[in-house]
Amino acid sequence: DQSLKPQIAAPHLAVNNPTLTTVALEKPFCMFDNSLGPNKSYVVYLYAMKESASAISFLVTDNSSKPLNSTFQKTSGGQLGPYKAALFKVPDCASPPRLADVGDVNKVSDVLKQYLFRVGDDVTCLYDPNFLAVCNPPLAPDTTYRFKYVLVDSTEGIMKDQTLWSDPIKTRRVKLPLRIDTWPGRRSGGMIVITSILSVLMFLLLAGLLASVSSAVMRSEDPSAGTKHMSQTIQQSEPRPQLSSE
């Protein structure tokens, strides 16, 4: 089907997608079945490029139908043209992963790896001098990209089939610190004022209670008050001497 194109992953399979620097795509299950020949070995290339580079008009093969080996660095992150972001085996259309297993904690990670591919998921390949595989570095925030799957005959090294470019997919925008809502529940200004007043009143109430308790404790522990009380009691209880009649 010449109308097939890469699709962004369903929300229940990839939450928060796209992110600032990644896009999760569904792998091309059953897209290239009619192009697969017997006794042949195939792989799938994933190309990415920025929408601003007029992606639809750019080819991903040379004049001899060989897929381009353009890299993220050579294309300025997809600004100058498509770059190869991934290489993986052709998904098995006969036995796809069971999406029902996504609910199983022990199986969810394996199912998602088989069913999805996350573009921009490698944060180290650009800076690792020993990295030899296809580099899939983070995408740019607040930027629109398009993607294309290409079926390649591994033996001959030529393209056998390809999808259309995907619809535009835009990564998320970075929020400015001043615009980040730090209040839980998005409280209004009136609620903030009321909360502040109640907090002050509660503080004054606690301060008064602590002062009263402290005063009572200090009175109970004052030794002079006890001595004075005892001396008055003793004076009252001592018998007064009687005057002689003489």
Describe the model:
The chain is an alpha+beta fold and 246 residues long. It has a domain at 7-171. Helix content is 22%, strand content 17%. The strands form 2 sheets. Strands 2, 3, 5, 6 and 7 form a 5-stranded antiparallel sheet that branches. Strands 1-4 form a two-stranded antiparallel sheet.
Any descriptors?
five-stranded antiparallel sheet, two-stranded antiparallel sheet, alpha+beta, 17% strand, elongated, 246 residues
- What is the general shape? elongated
The radius of gyration over CA amounts to 38 Å
Strand count, sense and closure of the main sheet?
5 strands, antiparallel
Please count the beta strands (DSSP E, at least 2 residues each). 7
Strand content: 15-25%
The parts where pLDDT drops under 50 for at least 5 residues are none
Transmembrane segments: 189-213
Pfam family, one: Uroplakin_II
Protein name: UPK3A protein
Organism: Corythaixoides concolor (Grey go-away-bird)
